[in-house]
Amino acid sequence: MGKKFHTYLKNNWQLYVLIAPAVIYFFVFNYLPLYGIQIAFKDYKAVSGIAGSQWVGFKHFTNFFNAYYFKRLLGNTLLLNVYYLLWSFPVPIIMAILLNQVKGNKIRQMIQTTIYVPYFISTVVLAGMLYIFLSPTSGILNTVRGFMGMSAVDYMSSAEAFRSIYIISGIWQSAGYNTILFIASLAGVDQALYEAAEIDGASIWQKIRYIDLPSLIPTIMMVLVLDCGRLLSSNTEKALVMQTAGNIPTSDIIGVYVYNIGLGSGQFSYTAAIGLFINIINFVLIIAVNKLSRRLTDVGLF
User: Fold this and answer.
1) What Rg, from alpha-carbon coordinates, does the chain have?
2) What is the C-alpha separation between 102 and 99, in angstroms, rounded?
């Protein structure tokens, strides 16, 4: 067995060299850090190190679950991500289907470039744009309201408006870029199917219904499974820069809380326990949704 493996390795060493950088990357940045998970069960002290810190079991988990703000943090995080998934998930699919109907290559490339650009705007710049556009004194929206005789509204300080602003800006920024995967799936559809449909007199909507959508189902389900596995993992950076004193009742999510407590108060063990709790829930969700997907559509990640 050892001799056969040595011969195989000698004949195919180029392949192992090719994948070595990726293996090293994931080992260093994804597997080695798993050693630090144990601080969630310890009272971590920097001077004592991970190994020298005292074990406290599930103390930090219990403290988080019993905290008076636990329900608000969990509720805000779930609502924000569930609403975002419901509103943002169909948009790239619709855009990809519509782009697939554009016949001119130059026009299609121009549209694709236009809708991809917002994705490369940094989160801080996006938040700055939101503060400018939604300013109660000089913002575009409030200027229009003024022309209509309506009073100005400070949207960025409104708890009721936070989720809508977060979701709409997120769709504008990422929907175009997220169409890439669906456009690639449609590009692999046999053109003979479209030609046969045209001969049979099928309309554009019939071709979308009977050709495009069935071809996209495997990709749609895989993306949905991955998205459901992030229902407790919000865009912390965006929520943090958008947070104001007025919208805290809805913008106070788990990610922002972990950032403030972990870096602001130095409670590394406590925040590590919260992070582990989030990852476990996300893992359970991705397993459950994947199982449901395989049962309903026979498509899954594993």
Assistant:
1) 25
2) 5
Which CA distances in Å does 196 have to 58, 210, 212? 63, 12, 14
56 bridge partner residues: none
Helical pair 268-297 and 213-228, crossing angle rounded to 10 deg: 150
The amino acid that residue 28 corresponds to is V
* C-alpha to C-alpha distance for 59 and 40, rounded to whole angstroms: 9
Other residues' Cβ atoms within 10 Å of the Cβ of residue 17? 9
pLDDT higher than threshold 90 for residue 262:
no
Write the pLDDT tens digit of every residue in 163-214. Answer: 999 999 999 999 999 999 999 999 888 888 888 888 888 888 888 888 999 9
Q: What is the predicted pLDDT for the residue at 137?
A: 85
| AA identity, residue 271 | T
Handedness of CA 263, 266, 270, 273 (dihedral sign): positive
Beta strand segments in the chain, E: 42-43, 54-55
Total number of residues shown for the chain: 302
Taking a C-beta distance cutoff of 8 angstroms, is the pair 156, 247 a contact? Answer: yes
What is the CA angle 262-266-270, rounded to 5?
Answer: 60
* Tokens 């989030």 found at: 278
Could you tell me the sign of the dihedral formed by the alpha carbons of 259, 264, 269, 274, in that order?
negative
Q: What phi, psi does 229 have (nearest 5°)?
A: -80, 5
Task: Work out the average pLDDT over 67-90.
Answer: 93
Q: By three-state DSSP, how is residue 295 classified?
A: helix
Q: Average per-residue pLDDT in the chain?
A: 89
Under 8 Å between Cβ of 119 and 173: yes
Give the list of residues 6+ apart from residue 201 with CB closer than 8 angstroms, or none: none
